[in-house]
Amino acid sequence: MANKKAKKKKRFTDEDVFQIFGVGTGDKALRKFISGQRKINGRLYKAIDLILDGLPRNTDKRASADDKKRSACLVRAARYNEVIPGKVPPFCNDDGLLP
């Protein structure tokens, strides 16, 4: 069995995002706004990830229908959360957040 290497996600810096949006160095207000939104996105992503990790998922075959539905919803939420960093700007910036 061949080992699959994990695909490393490109970490976009604020400057990368500014360049993608075409925001010049003189537009300080827009730069602060974009930087702030990236930090908010990163914090939300990390917080949701921690919450999902802390919630129990019942995989027991004898679990009630409600438990199975709840577990399925948690799995869906985890999949949604993985998309939050996104493929379009402003992306997430979780640098400097607590582990």
Main beta-sheet strand count, sense and barrel state = none
Give the DSSP E fraction (strand runs of 2 or more residues): under 5%
What is the arithmetic mean of pLDDT? 82
How many E-type strands? 0
Give the H and E element order: HHH
Share of helix, binned: 40-55%
Based on helices, strands and strand pairing, what is the structural class?
Answer: mainly alpha
Could you say which overall geometry the principal axes of the C-alpha atoms support? Answer: elongated
Give the radius of gyration: 18 Å
Distance between the termini: 33 Å
| Sequence stretches where pLDDT stays below 50 over 5 or more residues | none
Individual helix count: 3
How would you describe the overall organization of this protein?
The structure is a single chain. This protein is 55% helix and 0% strand. The chain has a domain of 54 residues. It has 99 residues and is mostly helical.
In short:
The protein is an all-alpha fold. The protein has 3 helices and no strands.
Provide the descriptors you would attach to this structure in a database record.
99 residues; mainly alpha; elongated
How are the SSEs ordered, and which strands pair?
Blueprint: H1 14-21, H2 28-54, H3 65-83
